[in-house]
Amino acid sequence: MKMDQMKLDESERDLRVKDMKSEEAVGPVRQPFLIKSCEQGASNIGKPYLNISLADETGVIDARKWEIKPGDLDLFRPNTILMIDGTIIRYKGKNQVKINRASPVDMNTIDRSRFVPHAPLTSQQLKDQVVALVESIVDPQIKAVVKGVMNDTWKSYSTYPAAVTVHQAYETGLIYHSLCVCKIACAIVDLYPGVFHRDYVVAGTLLHDIGKVQELSGPVGTKYTRIGKLESHIQIGAMIVNRKCLELGLDQEKTDLLTHIILSHHGLPEYGSAVRPKTADAFLVHLADDADAKINVIENAMKTVRPGEFTDRIPWMDNIELYRPTFDGSDPEKTADKQE
Known about the structure:
The chain is an alpha+beta fold. 42% of the residues lie in helices and 16% in strands. The chain starts with a helix and ends with a helix.
């Protein structure tokens, strides 16, 4: 009787994804997950299986379902929440979930916020801070361009993710990323008076990724659109800003300077920029954008490891592995575990 009870308790562990990646997590698991993606693959002997990504608000873990049943592809639809019954196993030095069974859940009993990452600020906080930055622009023409573009795109700008997978890939990620980039850049403007032009920096940072409102499909089940694949958010965004400048009658130099910031914000052509940054303001927008994106990647990577461990290789940062120091007890749950 006691052995049966032990098995029941083990099979009903309630783990977060970030805690499923250590060797100690190996064992049975039965709990709900968000289906991030699902694709059919084939084994070395040609047997079909499902390659699935399971997620919650703390991260994503790979999963496999080796026995495909009729209706499985429809059941494992991305952005649905399913009860997963399986086992966490260790394979080639990494944990993954071997799925035995899956079933729908009663969404009335599910707190969706547990499964969907979100910005650390509320939608209202994001709006208030962005509006305050726009109002700080002194040049009335530049302010009018930013307001005009935001009025045209606000519903998407304020809800879309900043990316499909790499950084701030969650609802409201685009506006949060833009806000963070603006704050980083403005701090540098203040640090080096006389080098940059704050109006252009604020406008450029807030609008640098505006093309993503057309490049991406939306806040849920985000994919690249046809125009996104064909033109990329850099070109799309440059056209959005350029058209608004022309519509509002800005002179050619102001139009060129604002458009150039959008076209060059990835820095190098091999990273998607149409041109390298050729003004101080464009260079600063590029630096701030790159810094915020990489810091977010680092933040997410550190959540996957315990103090004293290295992260997996990070493909978006030249495949480096980052070390989390043993004295880093910033995760309250892990600190509590140690105290217990």
